[in-house]
């Protein structure tokens, strides 16, 4: 079993797919986290005309089919599209754009839900202590850091498991934009199930290790707080 996994993992095409997957996932999750957390904070903090419509629109985008987002990004990045001169189609950067558009509404919606339940009481406490607006915002983020972490992990999980959007925007080019999920899809269509299963196991193991490391960091943080 170990020799079989070793032979699969040592395959240059699979190593390239792993590299592309994590490059895309880390970049898109990072950008989407900054945008989603910021928009979530603003959505909870401010009142403005049409706020309910914006919230409903964001909830709609949270469940939007990734292949539709991929098609929209493809039309924007294609040679005759408005962003065609940037030559981002069939590149990792183009895939990051598509993934960011998919993940940002998810993180924004989750952050807004957490803030709606907890932020008013935190803000009230901060006001009684004479905190400024920026200090209050910092306190809210600190108090909800575990929820924010969960949102980021959720976004990362969505990113590494995506197929439709990255297939359209990236083109599934060998050695350049082929990810782990698109490789699995390609292997399945070719009837090569052994390598496909191995790659799927590798994907699950990587996701488990990431979650495990984050849980350890959280546990250590909680123990330090208790001391």
SS element count, helices: 10
Helix content: over 70%
Give the end-to-end Cα distance, rounded to a whole number of Å: 45 Å
Q: Give the strand tally.
A: 0
Q: Mean pLDDT, as a whole number?
A: 86
- Globular, elongated, flat, extended or rod-shaped: what is the shape? globular
Low-confidence stretches: none
Pattern of helices and strands: HHHHHHHHHH
Which radius of gyration do the C-alpha atoms yield?
Answer: 20 Å
Largest sheet report: none
DSSP strand content: under 5%
Structural class: mainly alpha
Organism: Faecalicatena fissicatena
Main location: membrane
Subcellular location: Cell membrane; Membrane
Keywords: Membrane, Transmembrane, Transmembrane helix, Transport
How is this structure best described in words?
By secondary structure, this protein is mainly α. Helices cover 80% and strands 0% of the residues. The protein has helices at residues 2-9, 12-45, 51-62, 66-77, 92-128, 133-143, 145-160, 164-170, 180-189, 193-226. Helix 2 (12-45) crosses helix 7 (145-160). The protein is globular, with a radius of gyration of 20 Å. The model has no long low-confidence stretch (mean pLDDT 86). This is ABC transporter permease.
